[in-house]
Protein 1
Amino acid sequence: MKKLLLAAIACISLGGLAACAESGSDQQGGDKAAPITGEVNLYTSRHYDTDLALYEDFTRETGIKVNRIEADADALIERIKSEGEFSPADVFVTVDAGRLSRAEQAGILAAVDSEVLTDRIPANLRDPGNRWFGLTTRARIVIYNKAKGKPAGLETYADLAKPEFKGRICMRSSSSVYNIALLASMIAHDGEAKAGAWAKGVVANFQRPPQGNDMSNIEAVAAGECDISLVNTYYLARFDTPEKRKVLDAIGIIFPNQATTGTHVNMSGAGVVKTAPNRANAVKFLEYLSSESAQQVLANANNEYPAAKGIAPTSAVAALGSFKPDSLAPSEIGKHEARAVELYNAARWN
């Protein structure tokens, strides 16, 4: 299977899936794809080319064709709700724990009885009622300009609001789902008052108004334009290449809250839609995504941590170091995301 996946990824990079279709079984020593015997309809907010390679391999292996609609997770949730019992959606996929919880709370996901999934995916990375399952995870960490030294007294997310860091922090917009999920987790842990005060304190420490994304803020910290930022681990791992290594070498890393709640993590995940017209195929698709070969491609493609047990991340991610993750349930994050947005607005974190 791993050979199939690598070949599919190579085809994408060299000219699209059409090239794979043209070369077909000849590249695999004469192996033939299974005849198309069914389909599964995917509503997804993931948009990586290597996912396409996985879909192709799943179809080759099972004969089940993958149809997909890509859009923002919230838009997909609303679409499934509006389509009701006539929705063609079989599987919902998103890149945010809060959206997984929101889909579950919206009542659009079904419980799945699968020993394969419950054996492979740890309990803290799946819904207690098995209505969704994590696929990959990433941590939100503090970075700093290594040449200027590790900022004294910066060990937790709360420390970012200390007045001694005034004029030293650059961030992306508060509309980022990653920032929303982080503040939602802080509400769950510490309450709204402390979370709101933290947002205001960080805003007071901005070196510039929020702008760009995690990648551009990594570059800004490396260049000394600002000293400190918050980024996802997979963005930092993208700089572990010969061409970009200079940026990575200029960055220091802090995994926050190691002595308390643990570093905040978010995840991509999926669930079977309650009204799925192809439920058996949907379950089979999720089981496939939890397999070792699929997990390696899912995680490696975006430098994330595999959700399934016993699978190591890429060397670029492993090089960032080990850490204690926050074990907060995604349902707690989803519960507080709306309030997190309000607190960011009150703090004028644009």
Protein 2
Amino acid sequence: MTMRRVAVWVMLVTAAFAAERAYAAEQAKSIYLLGVTASMAGVTPPSGTYFSSFTYLYSGDATGGAALSLTLPITGTALPSFATLQANADLGVKANVALDVFSALWVAPEHVLGGNFGVGILLPVGYQGVDVNVNALSSLTFPDGTVLGRGRSLGISDNTFAVGDPLATAFLGWNAGNWHWKVTGLLNVPVGDYSRNNLVNMGFNRWAADLTGSVTWLDPQSGFEVSVAVGSTFNGENPATNYKTGTELHLEGAVMQHFSKDFAVGIAAYHYEQVTGDSGEGAVLGDFEGRVSAIGPNLTYNLKVGDVPVLTSVRWLHEFNAKNRLQGDAGFVTVTIPFGGAPAH
């Protein structure tokens, strides 16, 4: 049996026995990368040009509704066909991600509205893989007559290495004494690699925008820092699936101790909550919402390679309290090289 055929079978069977289960955000993922904002969230860099490489590693799993959102590529199959299937099974998903987000940022030399203004572009490139396992608790009959006996399992997998959707960004930030704050906008442009029949896609095939406000309090005498960022993601409809992901809220933060202008350690965390349900003809399982939280260590270190300053950040975040989302572990490594501007501390 081909992977695509099996994927369609999984779609039909899981929809039949799980129509009352919740799932949130199409394919259980968002255009805003949770955990991307941590230490110095509210600080704007000096004028200049900055190039960054942001490496993101993630491994997580899901069952129930969250698994459905990963294994259910909506193909427009009519709901009445689901009712004809008598199915009972356990569904589990394991997902792995390894990608790099390359970015270029320019900060204007002149103030705008009394603050520092910057614009930039981000491009994700990398790998995503999904393994799906269906365990039959009773005999399952697929639409073409194939029977999966009780106690038998069906496994499929899919993976991709591709370029995702580019994102345009702009921010405006201010500072006063120990306080630093800024507003950042993000726009997802749906031109990355995507097929509605794939179990995994680098692209989202939908327009989406994010607006985030962040603030940092940093005492240069003690080196103590507290940073918080709150934002919302607003999603357009995916025209290939007629699926519209609901509005998503994300809260991120970090508490850090700076031992020098170049070295700091602390704790980073995030919380995700979908605040409005999914909608559209493609959201066949309803308008349910998801959430997840994470916490872990964060380290920042600035160094010089020759005469070139290099800003680095490393953190690991462990997820918990997930509902209708993947739950796992995320690792972040950021390397930033400024040209024409000094690192901000």
Protein 3
Amino acid sequence: MTQQIFHGIRASIRSGAMKKGSRLSSWQDLAAQLGVSRGTVKRAYDLLKDEGLVETRGSAGTWVAEVAEAPRDQHGEERRAPSGLFYDFETAPQYFQLGVPAQDEFPAKAWHSAWRQAIAVEATRPQIYPDPRGLLAFRHEVAGYLASARGLNCLPRQVFITSGFTGALGIILNAMGLRGEKAFVEEPGFPRTRQALLEAGIETVPAPVDSEGIDFHWRPDVKLAVVTPGQQAPLGMTMSATRRAALLKWAAETQAWIIEDDYAGELQLSGQASPALAAADGQGRVFHIGSFSKTLNPGLRIGYIVVPVALVERYEGFVSHLAPAGPVVVQQALQAFMSGGHFYRHLRRMKKLYAERKAMLVGALRRELHPSIRCSSDGALSVRLFLPPGTDDVAIAAAAHRSRLGVLPLSEWYQGRTRPSGLLLGIANVRSRDVSAKCAALSAALNHGLG
């Protein structure tokens, strides 16, 4: 038994699974966990110490020593990101990175206060399984917010708390049994949404986007549409009233479903904010999805679905068995943050800040970039650069990433054969002190790629 413990821990240290400088369990605690004598574990720890793999620090415990690093291929496997639009998970956001909020303007004081309240509540909460739909107080708060900010009147029982947008999308696709069906997707549209549909066994049908939003052809064989009506991703336009009415009519008459990705609906930077598409849904065909990733922190992994009233019971059963809401303390912190009025104040500040940062970025880009590169900044939390036809925007984006510039190639957002070249730049973390230097670095990458 001593040898088994010794060899197991040694293999973990040498492979890098146990990082150097990390603390081991005390031999008393590990013995209790494994159901062996304390002497058995202590002898194993002594063998590890003899090999120089661990060091003891008296009452401070036993720690992994400064041993050789993990083999290069294993280290690479750990740090390698999954395929798709992922960045390095261990570092701060890259400059121009999409989908993240302004880290330097996070409301830390109010957020920490909300967390303290949540932890105090959690310490006295009965130790029972929580509501799989999400805490009722939090769902009330979300419903009230949607009514005032997005024009969507819904009951708290229609609100289901999820692990962000992807968690909500997975719940809908599985609960509705849509495998084998066809779905309209925007062209261009978010690549990971398209890939999620394919993973769920759904055939994607690209529908072009123009200045009014999605322009689809009526098809009774298509049973789902996934749209971003508030701010089209990535081009930024708001879906017109005419297109909204046409989409809702199609869904009602063909008994199809619509998934509304309201990824930044509360952060429309110019003009009057358009209401949620679900607000005009009189036939119960729209699923409204929102999250706190773009407004507060993607690390929270908290979002929500508003489901049609007729489907509430079906979703109650589904989430209770397969997709319950996440950690209660996070929900409690968000509920406290919202009920204290901090969320609304934060959104107001961010809308002003993002408008200023977008204007600043556009000005810097126009000073640095060649006139042949068209810059578009209408709508959305991004700036789009359109490159000459035939430009390899994927290669240019890869070169920019090596300079810690988190731009994305526009062509990857298209499904069809015609794929315009361009770059997508996030505005959230643009700052006056370095925007000119970053735009100059991007210009250098562009000039190299354009030859």
